[in-house]
């Protein structure tokens, strides 16, 4: 793993807070998994670095980074603790932003096959937050259209999990959610597309993928309400990847998993990817190693 350049501190939250007690400069920090791999890089001042765990004690909010919160909760469930690292101190805010962007670029975000859950590339800018080239993919169903913020937001979230040739989440404001029914006289096999749709909803809703869990069909990401696309939902139940729990309103439907179905989803999405997303616990993931 790439080393830190001039790392000033690494330890638990209590010791980190003590380390920052008399600091008045800006700093660049990392949140690390128990195995030492980073999952978030940020720039802060005062006790900003401590706010992420506090945020994770609350349900996923419409403006929250679901992947980041899921990783924190996954660490807690394994009876482990988030490791804190202070990379560097800066009297000039711009220098801190530059270092933050450098670390994010070097480690890589989820859609870049890196371990970071950061949504943006750092440096105080959201430029470059789209994981797929807009020029190349702006006209594709699975891309990031510049003139459709709702689809772009949902697709961007999905592409952190896996590249799709067609959408698996659709904006609720423009599409009708239809009741989920199996395809008659037609068979389906479990596919990565189906698994990614379920993993995306699990991550957005803070659900652990395991036997007995119920994964909502609806999501809310950065204030955009969406749902698992009608065809994908039918594929999921037809392939027996999950059982649908019906509701008087299709928006209230949920997918229920058995232990076997949960394992299929994790295998199709990828064990390491699910760990990085925080949608499987450390103890549960051992069964796949």
Describe this structure in words.
By secondary structure, the protein is an alpha+beta fold. It contains eleven helices and ten strands. The chain folds into two domains: 9-112, GIY-YIG endonuclease; 134-288, no CATH class. The strands form three sheets. Strands 1-4-2-3 form a four-stranded antiparallel β-sheet, with helices on both faces. A three-stranded antiparallel β-sheet has the order 5-8-7. β7 (218-221) and β8 (224-228) form a beta hairpin. It is elongated, with a radius of gyration of 20 Å. It starts with 8 loop residues before the first strand and ends with a helix.
The string of secondary-structure elements, in order, is EHEEHHEHHHEHEEEHEEHHH
Strand order of the largest sheet: 1-4-2-3
Give start-end ranges of low-pLDDT stretches.
126-142
* Percent of residues in β-strands: 15-25%
Shape: elongated
* Structural class label: alpha+beta
Straight-line distance between termini: 20 Å
Measured as a percent range, the helix fraction is 25-40%
Largest sheet, if any?
Answer: 4 strands, antiparallel
Tell me which oligomeric state these chains represent: single chain
Number of domains: 2
Radius of gyration: 20 Å
Q: Please count the helical segments.
A: 11
Arithmetic mean pLDDT = 86
SSE layout:
Blueprint: E1 9-11, H1 13-19, E2 26-32, E3 38-44, H2 51-56, H3 66-77, E4 83-90, H4 93-107, H5 134-137, H6 149-159, E5 169-171, H7 192-205, E6 214-216, E7 218-221, E8 224-228, H8 230-238, E9 243-245, E10 254-256, H9 259-269, H10 271-277, H11 282-285
Antiparallel strand pairs: 1-4, 2-3, 2-4, 5-8, 6-10, 7-8, 9-10
């Amino acid at each position: 793993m790439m080393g830190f350049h001039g790392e000033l501190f690494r330890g638990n939250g209590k010791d980190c807070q003590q380390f920052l007690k008399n600091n008045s400069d800006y700093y660049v920090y990392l949140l690390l998994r128990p195995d030492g791999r980073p999952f978030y890089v940020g720039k802060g001042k005062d006790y900003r670095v401590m706010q992420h765990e506090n945020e994770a004690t609350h349900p996923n909010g419409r403006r929250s980074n679901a992947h980041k919160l899921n990783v924190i909760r996954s660490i807690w469930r394994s009876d482990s603790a988030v490791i804190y690292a202070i990379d560097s101190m800066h009297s000039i805010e711009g220098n801190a932003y530059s270092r933050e962007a450098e670390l994010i670029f070097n480690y890589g975000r989820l859609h870049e096959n890196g371990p970071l859950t950061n949504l943006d590339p750092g440096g105080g800018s959201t430029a470059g937050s789209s994981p797929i080239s807009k020029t190349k993919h702006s006209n594709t169903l699975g891309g990031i259209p510049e003139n459709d913020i709702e689809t772009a937001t949902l697709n961007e979230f999905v592409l952190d999990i896996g590249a799709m040739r067609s959408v698996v989440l659709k904006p609720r404001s423009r599409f009708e959610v239809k009741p989920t029914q199996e395809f008659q006289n037609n068979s389906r096999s479990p596919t990565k597309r189906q698994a990614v749709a379920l993993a995306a909803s699990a991550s957005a809703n803070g659900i652990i993928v395991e036997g007995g869990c119920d994964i909502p069909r609806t999501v809310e990401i950065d204030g955009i309400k969406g749902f698992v696309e009608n065809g994908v939902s039918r594929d999921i139940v037809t392939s027996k990847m999950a059982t649908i729990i019906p509701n008087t309103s299709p928006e209230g439907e949920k997918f229920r998993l058995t232990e076997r179905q949960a394992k299929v989803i994790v295998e199709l999405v990828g064990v390491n990817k699910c760990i990085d997303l925080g949608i499987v616990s450390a103890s549960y993931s051992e069964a796949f190693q």
